[in-house]
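[Meeting: bench + compute handoff]

Bench side (C.D.) handed over the final construct sequence. Compute side (W.E.) agreed to return the predicted structure before the next meeting so the bench team could plan truncations. Sequence as handed over:
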Amino acid sequence: MAAPIQMLRTSTQEFTDPTPPVLAPAMELRLFVALSPVQFAMLTDRRPILPDPYSLRFGLRSDPLKAFERAHYFMSWSAPYAEPPPRESIKKYMLCSIVFTPQGVLTLLLANILEKGDGTDPNRAGYFRIRGPLFHELRGSDANQTLYYKFENQYSELV
């Protein structure tokens, strides 16, 4: 735990900070996604995890509770003029965390696979979308096989 900040009083009775605050660089971006039982089975079998057929994307959140709320909302949502989905069949979700490397974030953003949510809206902070299927890990095609993202091995079941 960090030591408490001590302020010094100068001759002009102003407070000065003896050591300026330092930000540690983040070496990863951790986002959460809530997967249905079928999608989670695809993950454990190391098959591509298919998104919702209507939107063709996953909603990723930096807050685990927001990821669960998004899954709960979208599993009971249907496209306009479509038959509503069965309300009782999908109620369980597996909350999974995905760890993105800095190079993975930049590469996927430039390829328009990963989209950042609206940064001007405070309700959209920590909001991302990823288009297409997810994989248990994604690596580049270069000689070093650069890691872009991978699922963590810890999962939480949410009902």
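W.E. noted at the follow-up: The CA atoms of residues 1 and 24 lie 14 Å apart. C.D. will use this when planning the next construct.
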